[in-house]
Design a protein that fits this description.
The structure holds three protein chains of three kinds. Helices cover 70% and strands 5% of the residues of chain A. Chain A contains 25 helices and eight strands. In chain A, the strands form three sheets. A three-stranded antiparallel beta sheet of chain A has the order 3-4-5. In chain A, strands 1-2 form a two-stranded antiparallel ribbon. Chain A has a two-stranded antiparallel ribbon with strand order 7-8. In chain A, strand 1 and strand 2 form a beta hairpin. Chain A is globular, with a radius of gyration of 26 Å. Chain B is mainly α. In chain B, helix 3 packs parallel to helix 9, helix 7 runs antiparallel to helix 9 and helix 9 crosses helix 10. Chain B is globular, with a radius of gyration of 19 Å. Chain C is mostly helical. Chain C has one domain. Chain C is 81% helix and 0% strand. The chains are: A mainly alpha, B mainly alpha, C mainly alpha. At the A-C interface, helix 17 of A face helix 4 of C. Strand 6 of chain A pairs parallel with strand 1 of chain B.
């Protein structure tokens, strides 16, 4: 038995053990035991992933008691990369959950579902054929639906969120199933190896590509299939949102990479364009919605759509450039997609866990009522700040490195000979730049409003830091954000092995080199340079501070007034107001201004009431009509069912006759 | 880290540290003279800094480490940008690319620090300034990146030093339509990013219009001093970059003493001329309404985008 | 004329054409728009003259002079008189906001660049490379026609459209015959003069030139 096989077995055993511990252990011990079990499961997944990445081979065949092929697990290096991401995120979230769970999220079913969810997610990238892939995929989808439903008794909106999630995730399953079916029919086999022999130019292959991309994009939260994300994330417990956002949506990205790198490597140009279009629209739309969101977890959910959009953009650019023979930048773009995956996993885990700490301490997700948490929750504030820097792609974080690589590949990809590439690349650069700018604004808002200034509500004023396990998990993920940004060479090594292409390598000590486009970045040197210029500034400040220490006063200036109610501070809504006006046409907020005049006067105002509501335009315009249509069809179908047993028997009778006729034809 | 680049970086940092306040003084003086006032003299910013350093620093209760560290981060990011941008000489570091994305990110760290300082005191003014500041920063970014993208196409590299060197080698490229369009776009972006007219009025304290001043309104003493110095350094670095792209001659191509001296002198001259032009232009324009600013930025973006498109046309023609 | 100088002059004129097109969409004051149109006319004339001198075609130079007089001076002056003195009423309020129209310009330029390949194949050298700019001007003109309210802006859009068509014609085939150009120009002049009279009457009648108000006339 090879090491990889041991790792795969270990995951199955650990998952089973965790589920049984969750069900059998006393409630007082359950969180600790099951949490450790789930964390070990995550670590096992990550280790197996590393083994697969470093060239470890292994093949686990599990026969099923069904008339189908046995489940075959045999992770490729690419799958190994995603196993590392999923396992690491799962392990951190499990440790966090030990201290975080309370009420329904501490129940046996919730822990059992978490372990099943982690197992399913770690096995998706290990699957070697379509059937195993779909089984693992469904395990992941079903368990995550249960997890989203956790708090359905406490909060009514959870039920609707879970419904949306269940429908969308099964739509995704269906599309992927159809896509694989088309490929399997063309390739005469369900194993990925058989499927990769299909003719890339045939119409059925293109059909399979479209179906698979739509299915994976739905799971990845790509616009316009993103509607479940901003509902499911606020509804789920925070450690679950962290895993869903940082790892589960990446399985959609893995699926797309599986298609364009392994199953159908000879992509057509329009495939790249499709991916690019999905990516650009999602990136801009996601970050726009995030920038005006006031619910912290909704904001993070939209930011996930944005980041996954950037990954799709990178993959699309890679496919497009490769089909035009622009090899170097194409390889960089494909590798950059994985850099984005790793960095997003790191900072989004930190952010969701940080949001969980805020929720744990205050019971609030609404930024407009938070404030001043930095004083009361220093660890959460510091780690959330690091995560926010990562999400805003500022140095020195992994987000910065990944976005730098993305821009490099796009800038060097354009060739004037190919009109299409020449036109698409500047648009992509502009989109990435706009996204980066808006992300900056979004996360300054999220951090500044929640953690700085004064508490805007009583809950924020009495906040406290969570238990030690939560803080440990937060610190670990924040260290990953900075660590991967400081020594991106680690990521580069993993990416090169996972993609199996050149274009990216380690530069200097552990910097990131992009030989494909002739660029290199060593964040350690940049940090050193920054310290060199910062130290004199620090020394001067320190000497000045020693001579004249600063003096706290109630209010230094306050716009010339006295300190009034903390509710007069800028809130998240007001912070995003200029932006929501600029993008009025895209966001279409509903504004309602009611002015009650005092008596007959036209000038004296008694009361002004301003209401603004921002809804997801895509949801309102596309989904509400669709849901209404389905409703109507459902009502019509209801006439078929009147409860009479005779009627049902008659249906079966008719069906039997129909089948007989069809068979005889 | 290569010695020549390090020496040049030190020279650039020191020169910019001395010159940026003088640049601001010169701009204020120019403006004062054109408006018929006597003016406070070119040295006034330095006197202000000395005064602020000696004053007591007051901090509103409830503020945290952000108020203390923010100003320092702003200055450090400005200094780092001065070290990276080709101002005196175009000798890049081996391991730290001076491509625009890195430089912009370094400057954005300062932008974020400033915005957080504005929020930290918990007043309406600070939040207002911070919100407007970030909105503009977000909208400027596409222009900056696309403009430099246009400049990088003929060179085949996005490193600023390579672009500047290529322009020295081929003077005709400086006056090409691509380059002019991109530079106009970049100039608008610089004006917006550094808070000059018509985007922000650096000398206003009217609550409806101020952006930068609203963020620093709660700061005092050395905090305010650092914040002012930091924003002057940004102005200096960005104007210097514009100068190096517009008039690349004089930029040192190696770290020799003579070349560096020429580089320093030309840099000071370029900054002085650009500063005077900018200040003179400011006399004649009024501040735009805040919600007209996006139009200006969209316009500059279109110019940058056209520069990219045009660069393909030119490449094809050649 | 050396080939390099020729290429640079053509690129410069094309650049000015494009830039004035962008600025016409960007600006709101009608007088400024008319002035920009004049600059565009002059640039077109210079472009024609450059092509004419390079190809040693004296009749093209004559066409250039005609374009200069008509599009550089006569039409702008006439339009300027219709626009009247600067004032608060002389500002365009477009139907879609300026930011959106500017982004649209970027997309239209891209489109022009993408679809102009067959046209470019008809010519060669620097003139062919500038063809997309002429096409972009046509698209800009249509955009102005479709999104502007004021009658003057409508005329400007129409003239920009014509400038674009003329630019494409000159860039591809070295121009249209003198007679055709003469006829087209005279038609244009006639159209503008008729419209001037018409707008003058409309303003005398309604005190405004907003097309949205005019659309109520059918009732």
């Amino acid at each position: 038995m090879t090491q990889v096989e041991v790792g795969l077995w270990a995951q199955l055993v650990l998952a089973l053990a965790t589920v049984s511990v969750a069900v059998l252990a006393r409630p007082a011990l359950r969180a600790r035991l099951a949490g450790v079990g789930a964390a070990a499961l995550g670590v096992a997944g990550a280790v197996t992933g590393v083994l697969a990445l470093t060239g470890g081979q292994g093949r686990l065949v599990i026969p099923l008691a069904l008339p189908v092929d046995p489940v075959v697990l045999s992770p490729t290096p690419l799958g190994g990369f995603f196993m590392v991401v999923a396992g690491a995120v799962g392990a951190v979230a499990a440790v966090y959950a030990i201290g975080y769970v309370h009420g329904p999220s501490a129940s046996a079913s919730s822990w059992a579902a978490l372990a099943t969810f982690l197992l399913g997610m770690q096995l998706v990238p290990a699957a070697a054929d379509a059937v195993s892939f779909l089984l693992a995929w469904e395990l992941m989808a079903a368990a995550s639906t249960v997890l989203v439903l956790t708090e359905h008794r406490e909060r009514l909106e959870v039920r609707s969120a879970a419904l949306w999630y269940a429908v969308m995730t099964h739509l995704s399953f269906l599309l992927i199933l159809l896509g694989f079916a088309v490929l399997a029919a063309a390739g005469h086999g369900t194993s990925f190896a058989a499927m990769s022999h299909v003719d890339p130019a045939s119409a059925s292959t293109s059909l399979a590509f479209v179906l698979l991309v739509l299915g994976f994009a739905t799971k990845a939260g790509i616009v316009p299939m993103h509607v479940w994300l901003p509902r499911a994330h606020p509804a789920a417990p925070s450690h679950v949102s962290a895993v869903m956002s940082a790892a589960m949506v990446k399985m959609g990205v893995y699926g797309v990479l599986l298609v364009v790198l392994q199953l159908l490597p000879a992509g057509r140009p329009w495939w790249g364009l499709v991916l690019l279009a999905f990516g650009t629209v999602s990136a801009v739309y996601g970050i726009l919605q995030a920038s005006v969101a006031t619910d912290l977890k909704r904001l993070l959910a939209y930011s996930t759509t944005e980041n996954v959009g950037l990954m799709f953009l990178a993959i699309g650019a890679g496919v497009l450039l490769r089909s035009y023979g622009v090899v170097g930048p194409a390889e960089v773009a494909a590798g950059t997609a994985l850099l984005l995956v790793a960095s997003h996993a790191a900072f989004k885990t930190t952010l969701f866990l940080g949001a969980g700490s805020v929720l744990h301490a205050t019971g609030l997700r609404d930024l407009d009522r938070l404030g001043g948490l930095g004083k009361r929750m220093p660890t959460t504030a510091a780690t959330f700040g690091v995560g926010a820097l990562g999400a805003a792609a500022l140095p020195i974080t992994c987000g910065f490195v990944a976005e730098w690589a993305l821009l490099q590949s796009l800038i060097h990809g354009a060739r004037p000979e190919d009109r299409l590439v020449a036109v698409v690349m500047p648009v992509a650069v502009a989109v990435v730049a706009l996204t980066a700018g808006l992300a900056l604004m979004t996360f300054v808002k999220a951090y500044g409003i929640a953690f700085l200034a004064r508490p805007r509500g009583p809950e924020a004023g009495t906040a406290h830091e969570g238990p030690a396990t939560m803080r440990v998990a937060l610190v670990v993920s924040a260290v990953a954000v900075v660590g991967l940004g400081l020594v991106p060479g680690i990521m580069a090594t993993a990416v090169v092995r996972a993609v199996g292409l050149g274009g990216i390598d380690v530069f200097g000590v552990a910097g990131l080199g992009l030989p494909g486009v002739g660029a290199a970045l060593d964040p350690v040197a940049l940090t050193g340079l920054a310290l060199l210029v910062a130290i004199p500034v620090l020394v001067v400040t320190w000497r000045m501070a020693r001579r004249r220490p600063s003096r706290p006063v109630d209010l230094a200036w306050g716009g010339g007034g006295v300190r009034v109610s903390p509710r007069m501070q800028y809130t998240a809504t007001s912070y995003a107001e200029p932006l929501s006006r600029v993008f009025d046409d895209a966001l279409r907020p509903e504004r309602d201004l009611e002015i009650t005049h005092a008596g007959e006067s036209r000038y004296l105002v008694e009361r002004v009431q301003f209401r603004q509501q921002l809804e997801d335009v895509v949801e309102v315009r596309a989904y509400v009509p669709a849901v209404r249509l389905v409703d109507r069809v459902g009502l019509a179908a209801r006439r078929l069912q009147n409860g009479s047993i005779h009627r049902y028997l008659a249906y079966s009778f008719v069906a039997l006759i129909a089948v007989l006729i069809v068979v005889s034809l | 880290m290569n010695g020549g680049a390090a020496a040049l970086a030190v020279v650039q940092v020191v020169v910019m540290l001395v010159v940026s306040p003088l640049l601001v003084g010169l701009m204020r003086q120019t403006r004062a003279r054109l408006e018929g006032r006597v003016g406070a003299g070119v040295l006034q910013p330095w006197r202000d800094l000395r005064k602020l350093a000696a004053k007591e620093t007051l901090r509103a209760s409830g503020t945290g480490w952000v108020s203390a560290a923010g100003p320092l981060v702003l200055v450090a990011s400005g200094l780092l940008a001065c070290a990276l941008v080709p101002l005196v000489g175009a000798v890049p570091f081996v391991s730290v690319p001076d491509d625009l994305f890195v430089v912009v990110s370094v400057l954005l760290v300062g932008t974020v620090a400033l915005a957080l300082v504005g929020l930290d005191a918990g007043t309406a003014f600070g939040g207002m300034g911070s919100s407007r500041h970030m909105t503009i920063a977000a909208l400027v970014e596409p222009t900056v990146l696309v403009a430099v993208y246009a400049l990088s196409i003929p060179v085949g590299s996005s490193a600023l030093s390579r672009i500047v060197l290529a322009r020295i080698d081929d003077p005709a490229s400086v006056a090409s339509p691509v380059s002019l369009l991109a530079l106009v776009a970049l100039a608008i972006a610089v004006v917006a990013e550094t808070g000059r007219l018509p985007v922000d009025n650096p000398s206003t304290h009217l609550e409806l219009t101020m952006i930068h001043e609203a963020m620093v309104i709660e700061s005092s003493g050395r905090d305010l001093g650092w914040l002012e110095l930091g924003s002057w350094l940004r102005l200096g670095a960005l104007l210097g970059l514009l100068g190096s792209l517009l008039v690349p001659w004089g930029v040192a191509q190696d770290a020799g003493v003579a070349a560096v001296l020429v580089g320093v002198v030309t840099l000071v001259l370029k900054l002085a001329v650009l500063g005077c032009v900018l200040a003179a232009a400011e006399v004649f324009v009024a501040k735009l309404r805040l919600f007209r600013v996006p139009e200006l930025l969209a316009g500059s973006f279109v110019l940058a985008f056209l520069a990219v498109t045009a660069s393909y046309l030119v490449v094809q023609a050649g | 004329m050396t080939p390099v100088l020729f290429a640079e002059l053509v690129a410069f004129c094309a650049g000015v054409l494009l830039l004035t097109g962008v600025l016409i969409v960007w600006r709101r004051e009608l007088r400024a728009i008319v002035r920009l149109l004049a600059v565009q006319g002059v640039a077109l004339a210079v472009l024609v003259a450059v092509i004419g001198i390079d190809a040693h075609l004296p009749e093209l130079v004559a066409v250039a002079l005609l374009v200069l007089v008509l599009k550089g001076f006569v039409l702008p002056v006439v339009l300027g008189r219709v626009a009247g003195p600067a004032g608060p009423g002389r500002v365009e309020t477009p139907m879609i906001n300026t930011t959106a129209s500017l982004i649209l310009l970027a997309l239209l330029t891209t489109l022009a660049y993408l679809v102009s390949q067959p046209l470019k194949a008809a010519g060669s050298g620097p003139t062919a490379a500038a063809v997309p700019i002429g096409l972009a001007l046509v698209l800009f003109g249509f955009l102005v026609l479709a999104t502007r309210r004021h009658a003057i802006s409508q005329l400007v859009g129409f003239l920009m459209l014509d400038n674009g068509i003329a630019a494409v014609a000159f860039l591809i085939a070295g121009g249209v015959p003198l007679v055709v150009e003469l006829g087209a120009s005279l038609d244009l002049l006639l159209v503008v003069l008729v419209l001037q009279v018409l707008t003058g009457r409309i303003r005398a009648e309604f005190g405004d030139l907003d097309l949205d108000d005019l659309s109520e006339l059918r009732d």
